[in-house]
Design a protein that fits this description.
This protein has 14 helices and 19 strands. It is α/β, with parallel strands linked by helices. The chain has two domains: 173 residues, Rossmann fold (3-Layer(aba) Sandwich), CATH 3.40.50; 215 residues, Rossmann fold (3-Layer(aba) Sandwich), CATH 3.40.50. The strands form five sheets. It has an eight-stranded mixed β-sheet with strand order 12-11-8-13-16-17-18-19, sandwiched between helices. A five-stranded parallel β-sheet has the order 2-1-3-4-5, with helices on both faces. A two-stranded antiparallel ribbon has the order 6-7. The radius of gyration is 24 Å and the shape is elongated. The protein binds cytidine-5'-triphosphate.
């Protein structure tokens, strides 16, 4: 995963990596490496407690810069003001409950908290702590305060915590934190535009559903889920609360996203319908199987000795997109479909896509021309985004992240 670098006067984007004192501090080394290996100039500002977990020599060696926790080192350079002022991005990973509380209340008793007060660039915080501390009303209030002020707070992941316990509170995968930061940096510092999905709940479906035939076989398709995952990441970077309904995808969970895993189209339908009831936007990037076997064999289907193949009777699955578009529980919500089309005697790719947009009743339809087997499983995508208002936006070949942002641009414009 690479990050688009934003040029600055020094030629490299300047990133401040704040590290507060939690066990997940060791994972911040990986975040740091990803920044430095993709031409970012990183100043690490750990808290004194963070140095209990990972020592200053590690941060200095990995960043190539001296490391300080206090405002009293090199005072003539006024570091408590300069570091924040000069930054293009400040990311705090992990952010402890204590750090969130200090930041929410504007305390400034060490170099990191001073830096947070002087920074005018985008600020990303990746909290990590035990579930009880994360769920405590004090922490939730502090997070809400920071979000209101435009800080991008990435929800922690669920999973194994420091001890034997599990729950919400894990630091997301460092590569995924880095990906969110890359997105934020690439979008620049324009306030208001940057977090234009803040306070919005969006649902994205991704991957290909599987319809079981017997205990070992299924009907499936080639969808990798990459476009849906790129959409989820991009929405997090724009401040949204994101539910990702994921069918059989072998990709790491995007940071800050609630991932609901499903297998079949019926499972996906139930999960999408449930999440859509509180959603401002639903984007169906998945490839749900249109048909399923009428009967699921309880035993493995055996070969016939006479050499004949079995007949499998199929029935239609529900059309999730059409259902969501028809039953909008939230007035004004935006529904987006995808269509992988090939032209035929009845019309061009765009003719068929326009007819599909009308048939499905969605607001936007992202159309891929797959005439030559393009797109599947690749890093790049090209598409036309059709609107129910007759609009058509051509998105030339670019990363799936770029297409994701063009889609969210259209969604955000519709949400107003
Ligand atoms: N879709 C859905 N439920 C299904 C099948 C598809 O919600 N059972 C959604 C896909 O996620 C996509 C859109 O519908 O956003 C278009 O998918 P496509 O397979 O092109 O639609 P179909 O209705 O199956 O059209 P076709 O007959 O051309 O295959």
């Amino acid at each position: 995963m690479t990050t688009p670098a934003v040029p600055t006067e020094s030629g490299r984007p300047r990133v401040v990596l704040g590290v507060s004192g939690g066990i997940a501090a060791y994972k911040a080394c990986e975040v740091l490496r990803r920044f430095t290996e993709s031409a970012h100039d990183v100043t690490v500002v750990p808290t004194a407690a963070a140095l209990e977990f990972v020592g200053a020599p590690t941060w200095a060696a990995l960043s190539g810069h001296p490391v300080s926790t206090e405002v009293w080192d090199e005072v003539h350079q006024v570091p408590h003001v300069r570091i924040g002022q000069e930054a293009d991005l400040v990311v705090v990973a992990p952010a402890t409950a204590d750090l969130l509380a200090k930041a929410a209340h504007g305390l400034a008793d060490d170099l990191l908290t001073n830096t947070l007060l002087t920074a005018r660039c985008p600020v990303v915080m990746a909290p990590a702590m035990h579930t009880e501390m994360w769920e405590h009303p004090a922490t939730q209030h502090n997070v809400a305060t920071l979000r209101e002020r435009g800080v991008l707070v990435i929800d922690p992941a669920e999973g194994r915590l420091t001890g034997a316990d599990t729950g919400r509170g894990r630091l997301p995968d460092p590569a995924e934190i880095f990906a969110v930061c890359g997105d934020v940096l690439a979008r620049g510092a324009g306030d208001g535009v940057r977090l234009d999905l803040a306070g919005r709940h969006v649902v994205v479906s991704a991957g290909g559903t599987r319809e079981r035939l017997d205990p070992v076989r299924y009907l499936g398709n080639r969808s990798s889920g990459r476009q849906g995952y790129a959409l989820a990441r991009a929405a997090v970077a724009r401040g949204a609360e994101v539910t990702l309904v994921s069918a059989n995808v072998a990709l790491p969970d995007p940071a800050g996203v609630k991932v609901v895993r499903v297998e079949s189209t019926a499972d996906m339908r139930d999960a999408v319908v449930a999440a859509a009831s509180s959603a401002d936007a639903v984007v169906m990037a998945a490839a749900p199987a249109d048909f399923r076997p009428v009967n699921l064999s309880a035993v493995k289907i055996k070969k016939d000795l006479d050499g004949s193949a079995p007949s499998i009777e199929l029935e239609q699955n529900p059309d999730i997109l059409a259902e969501i578009a028809a039953d909008r529980t939230r007035p004004g919500s935006v529904v987006v479909g995808f269509a992988a089309e090939t032209g035929d005697d009845t019309g061009s790719v765009l003719d068929l896509a326009r007819a599909k947009l009308a048939r499905k009743g969605c607001d936007l339809l992202v159309v891929n021309d797959v005439s030559e087997g393009k797109v599947f499983g690749q890093e790049h995508n090209e598409a036309v985004i059709l609107g129910s208002d007759g609009s058509a936006l051509d998105v030339p070949r670019a990363t799936k992240s770029v297409l994701a942002h063009r889609i969210w641009d259209r969604v955000a414009a519709r949400l107003g």
